Every structure is written in C-alpha cells, then in structure tokens.
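JOB MANIFEST
job_type = single_chain_structure
chain_count = 1
residues = 978
[input]
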Amino acid sequence: MPTAPHPQNTDELFQALQENDQLPYGRTRTVTAEELVDAAEQFADPGPLAYALFELQEAYTYGSEPRKSPVVFARLLNLFDEQPDVFDERMRHMLFWRFKWVANALRALPEVPLTGLRQWLTEMRDRYVKADLDLQPYYGQAYQLAAHLGEDTSLAYELWAGRTRTRLSDCEACEVCERALHHLGTGDDERALRTWEPVLAGKDSCQEEPARSVSYALLPLLRTGRTDRARELHLAGYRACRRNPSMAGEVGRHLEFCALTGNEARGLELLAENRNLFAEVESPLDLLDFLTGLEVLLRRVELLGHDSLPAAGYAGRTWTVAGLRAEVRGRADDLAARFDARNGTTAHTDRRNARLDRTPLLDTLELTLRTRALDDAGPAAPVAEPTVRTTALPDSLPELILQARTLDQQGHPDGPACWARLRTLTAARDYAHPDDPALGPLVQLRADLLAEEANRAGEKDEFADAAALHEEAAALYDDAGQPGHAALSRACALLATAEIPVQGTDGAEAKTAALTSAHASMVRLHEETPGLAPFQEARLMRLKASALGMRLQTSRSDEHVAPVLAETDALHAFATRHDLIGQISGALLLRASTHAISGDLPAAVTEIDALLDRLKAHGPAWHLPRTLGLRGRLQLGLRDAQAAHADLTEALRLAADWPADAIDAARLHSDLAEACMHLGHPDEALRHLTRSAELELRRGNRTDAFCTYSNAAQLSLDLGRVEDCIALLDSLLAEPDVTTGELDDRLIAQLRLTRARALHTGEDLKAATAEFVTLAAESARWDDDPGSHAMIAAETAVLLGESGEFGRAREAADQALAAHARAPRFDQLSNSLRELARLQAHQQGPDGLAGAHAFLSDAGRVADEARAAEYEAHGRSLDTALAYEHGRVNAYAGEYEDALVALEKALALLGEPERNDDRAGEWAECVRLAGAVEGLYLERPAPALTRLDAAISHLTALGHTEETEPLISLVARLRDEE
C-alpha cells in the first residue's frame, strides 16, 4: 500500500522528497523513497529520477540495508555515464562521494567475494583519476579494507593518513575515528584517546559521530582510569544510537560496556529496549558486531548464576539468558566464519574471541541514578530487601508458633519472618497441626495468619482488602474460642474501613465522620469484651487513640486535639501499670505526633526527646529509628536542617540493624533528601531520593516509587545532569506497567514531560518538540485538568517557535489560551507568548513583526486578566515584562522608535532600583537595551550616553557594581563611534 499520494508533477515530487528527507531513517522512510523512485520514472526529465535515486540510496545506507545500496548506485552510475549533463556540480559531488558508501556496503556482505571488493576499489580509483580527483578518499577505503581483513594495515594506514584531505574525504569526525581505531588496534589506548578528543568533546560530528567513536572509546577510557568520562559518554552515546539498525554495532558495544562494569542488569534493560535490532539489522557485519557485544553481556550474566533470567530476543518465542546466549553464539560464530572464509584470514573470529574473553574492568560503576542488580531483573514481583534478623527461627514447629505469637505481642520486627515461615509450612499438603493445648487448634493459627496478612495489606494502603481479611480473621478467632483476638481483629477492621478513600470534594469531612464512628464502635467493642489480656487491652486502646489521631490529622480541628491526648494518656497509664514497653513508647510517640499536628512543634520536640531518653534506657530498640525519624521531620518544621540531617542519618544507621519491612527507610531517605536540599547539598539529596524510590519499588509501592523517581529526575535536571535525567526516565518509561498503561496516566505524562524538558535542555530540539507535541495532544483530552494542558501547550508552542514552525506554534498557543480560559495560568502563558513573539521577530525580522505583535497582544490580554483577578506574578510584573518585550521585538524588526517608546514604558513601570533591590539587574538590562536602540540604531548617542551615565552612577552608589558592567561596555562603544 502506498505510504503517500503519488506525485503528479516534478514540483510535487521534489516536495515529497524534501518531506521524506525529514523523517528518521527506517522502513517508513525507505518504503516512501522506493515509491518516489517509481514515481520519478514517469517523467521524461531524468533529473528528478537521479535525485530520487540518491534519496533511496541514503535510505538504504542509513537504514542498514547494504545489499540494496550498491544496486541503486549502479543505476546512478549508468545514468551518469549515459547522461552526464543531468548531474550538476552538487550531484556530481554526491556521486563520487558515494563510491565510499558502496565500498562500505560490499565489505559488510560476506557473500561478496574478496575479488569483488578489490575490483570495486579499482573502479573507484580509475573513476577518480579520470575525473582528475585526488586519491586520498581511495586510499582511505583501501585502508579500511586492510583493517577489515587484518592484513597489511600499517602500510595501508600510512598511505592514507599521510595524504592531505580533500573535498571528497570522509568528514573530519569519521577520519578521526579511523585513526583512533588504528592506534587502538596497536594497543595504544592513550594515543587513541588523544586522537578521539575533538570528536568526544563534540567539536567534530556527523550523521554517525560522535556516537560511533563514543562506543569504541568506552573501554579505553576505563582502562586508563577515566571512569567518570566513560560513564558520561555512555549515557549520551547510547541515547544517540539506541534502536537504530544502522548503529547496531554501537549498541552492542554499549551492552559490552555494561557487562564489564558490573551493570549487567542495565545491559539486559538496554537489550529489551533494542529488541527491534534482531529483526531490522540487514548488515551482516553490523549484526556480528551487535551479537558479539550481546554475547559478552549474556555470558557475564550466566557466570553470575542468572542463566534462567528472561531476556529479550528473536521474535516467536520466550528466551532465557542461557537460551538466547546459545542462539546468539551459533549465529555470531557462523557470521565470523563466513567473513573469514571470504577474506582468507581469521581476523573476525580472533577479534570476536578477544571480546568474549574480556573480564570485568570494574566490579561496579554506577552508570545511572537507578542502580539495579540482576535480582531486580526477574519477573515483576517485588524483590524482598535483604533482611537482618536478630532472632533465630526455631526448628520445632510448636516453638515457631509460640515464638511468632510472642513476637507479635511485643510488636517485634522479627515477627513477620516467623509468620512467613508458618505460612509456607501450613500451605503444604502434608501439614499436620501439633496436638498441643498451649498452641490452640489449627483454626486459631489460620486466624493468626489472616490477621498478619491483613496488617501487611493495610501497610500497603490496601484498606478494603485489609478490612475484609480482619473480619475473616475475627470469625476464625470466634471459632477458636479467642474472643480477645476476635475483638482486636474487628477493631482493626473498623479502622481499615474508615481509611478507605472517599471520592468527592467532601472527602475529608466524610473521612472525619468515618473515623469518629469507628472510634465509637471501638469503645463499645472494648466495653462489650470482658477478660482481655493486658497486651490485648493495650492494643485495643492504641487502636482507639490511633483513630482519634487520624481524625485530627484529617480535620486539623483544634477541638479534636484534647480527645487524642486523653486517649494517649489512658493508654500510657495502662501500659505503664502492666509494664508494656512497646505500648508505652507508642503512647508517647502518638502524643508527640498530636502536638506536631496541632502546630505546637516545640512541645512535640520536648516529648520526642523524653521518649528517646526512655528508649535508650528501656527500649524497645526497634522504636528508635522511627522516633528519630519523627524528630528529624520536626526539626525540618522548625527549620533546623542541620539537626534534622543528624537525626535522620542516625535513624538510617539504626534502621540497618532491623528487617527492612520493620522500618520505613524509604521515608527516612526521602526526609533526608529534603534536609540535604535545605543545607545546599543537592547531590546528596539526589542519592537519597533515588534510594527512597528503590526501596518503595522493592516493597511493591510502585506509584510512590515513580513519584519519588520523578522528583529525582527533576532535581537531576535542575543540577544540569541532563543525561542522568534522561537515562533515569528512559529506564522508568520502559517498565512493563508503564508500557501497558497500568500505571497512572498523569504520572506517566509527568515523567514524559520532564524527559521532554531534559531533551530540550540537552539541545535535542527535534526529539523534545516531538514529545511535547504528543503530550499536548494527549493533555487536550484532560477535561478535569485544563490548567496542565494550558502549560504543556504553551511550552509546545515555544519549542515549535524555536524550530521556526510559527504556524503550528500559533495553533498550539491558541490551544493554550483556550485551556487557560478555563484554568488560568497567567505566568506560564504570558512567558510563553512573549517568548514566541521574541523568537518570531528574531528569526524573521520585519517579516515576522505582525505575527510577533499578535503574540504580544495575546500576552497583553493575559496581563489584563491577571490584573483584574488581582493576581500577583512571580518576579517582575506581567505588564513590565510585556513592555520590555515590545521594545525588544520592535528592535529586532527595525522599528526603533516604537522600541524606544516601549522600553521607556518598561523603565517607568520598573522604577529605579534601591539598595538590596533584586530588580537592579532587570532595570540595568532595560537601560542597556534602550541605550543601544537610542545610541546605535537611532544614532542619537548624546541622550543615550546621558541615560547610561546616570544609570551607572545610580547603580554604583547603591553597590550594584556587577550590573554596571554591560552599561560601561556600551558607553565605551558609543564614545568610540562618536
């Protein structure tokens, strides 16, 4: 089926060729190019056909189809021989340039005999000589053939590298790569890296560079100790080649790099992202390169004992690491043998074996913010955090049951391990319950296990499930003749039911009422259940106090403070009377939390300090991390970040002594990240954020984990770590529950939005714009959130403006304005509209003035709306910013009188700055532009100098000397031109 309308004339054909040239390389572009060649053949003029053939050869070359590229070039060469006048100077240059493309394509095909390769080089030489062209490009191809064969490379290198470059030589970046690879082949890593430096630094680039050089330079960088540089280039270089069939070899080298730096899990992740390469790489040489790098990775994973892990592989079946490695090994061995048979050497087998024999260069190198181990690469079930156990599990079943119940009564962190073991034992078909009155019947143990499962569901905020499980456990306790346990389970069910989220605007009010009702029911339950053991009664009292504490947290009502304190005082008195140290601590912690919620932070800190003293003296020790964590949060509230950091750090240290599920270490890391930000330690904050997210992920809290990762990505972007940000987000967006749409779509959109902004910051305007356009289209359907759509559409418009697509930018801006009308975003809309005006005037000059003024008119209406709504802008006022932009836009378009009037208005709105005035820089810039317009463009230097001198004097007197520097520079220029 045709992919585009069939061109009816040459103008339409050239337009279609131009549009196809904007598409990324791949099947769509290639198929369209094939259709356009067919279309070009209908015209009598052979010129359009030549252009279409050039486009098709390019599509085949960069679409990794080397078998087809020489065929197309043969048609071009025949056309050139038969009708040379068809080829203008540019086409003639392309023709001779692409002799090299054909040489590269033929080398990549083992079925092409060596004599054919040499004949082609002879043809190239003869053609160059006949056309009176320098032979440096020919010798470059001769060297590349020698390097491919592994024979006579030194002589071939000297014949090529010693010659002066010509217009037909490979680009500087490509030649640098070939020189560096030659030095690498001789074992001289340092010289190779020195040769590569201009390319690695981004000074020289082309279609394939620096991505190709980066992939080869990774291991030499490691071998010479430049690990940070290797990490940086891996992130940027991989992004440039991923999923690209024509750069499969580069992808393979990145997989190898992961394998040799302790990043095997990331390697498997990148493999999954590039599964398309198994089907789309048509170049046998590129495929050999890719498969060899992949086998290095798979072999390493096998050696680490993870051969049964799933791996992305060839379509049609499910692969494990071991199965895929066997398949890859067979295919790659065959390819290497075919090349060696064609070449009459063993070079490709030898090079392949050398790569496979490499051992890790580093035990570990943290490549991304999301560090993953192979244990995380298995099925989607959360992987348990390694636990620290202070209590050994008894071998005896009766002792295990008794120990589980004892630890549960104490609230000991080792209790869950006992229940987990019992759950496994009781699930066995041959389980026989001990006939021991001290243990109770099997139904009691079943109830215990259900109650423990209900508690775990509640910890995951699965309140409906928790309530149902507690009710089921209560019924089993009744059957077992355990009314005290049954009452506790019913109280837990009441609290869980009250915590089930209520939809609607009155959610807080409804939850407050539900907690009030739950507390009343617990009171009745307490009164109606005689004979409770002290630990049971204390736990029931704790549940009542918790219900009231949660009610206060929901309502924030002062009248709800006293009831909580009364319940906690009663609990504390009861627990003290019966020496229940865990409940004593719980009561004191709840009392401190109540003071904090009510806003009395000093009282809360006093309570916490007393509790910490008691815990250190009497225990329980496992309450220390949580208590220190609360004190850390209180210190944050009191704006003592240093004290908070100390408390939270100590809490994390102590938490390491206990099983991971017992302490909310994810919360501790998150709070510590906040403390670090207040202390001005953003890099440390970033580490804590990613650790927090990782722990949430391990516990199965995927939404919380992704929210924290989102914050980490934004922070890394704010820190200028663009590639870290993009790599983190790419990893998250590749997760199965993201790709299948199971995760919240707004959260996914936020991740994509941050990624798009990172791409923009990283100067990948094309990719950033494409993502923004997609997000704008999706957010247009968010009827419940027009404000977000307004923001996204406004940013999209700016990126389209940067790309020079002002028609589409206007459409996006209109979408933003329509959404803004429903949910105002004054600052964002005004900023975007003014920037669009600046971009259009700057890029198009006088021709863009009308469009720029239209954007500014819209910005003016937004400013009017903001003023009417009594909205206070962040930073400078919208009116001031608008007046300044009118001045700048008119100056770009050559309307200097209008520009000066607008700038005078902006200065009047700003007013002269005062000492310690943060508006000084803005005012100085406005003065500078007004002086430039007046003195340079309107050629009125005298008043301009008067203005500038007065501003310099004023700023200097106020101590704003830095702001005077551009004004002094302009004054000097104006006086020089007088």
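[summary]
The two ends are 70 Å apart (CA to CA).
The CA atoms of residues 117 and 382 lie 54 Å apart.
exit_status = 0
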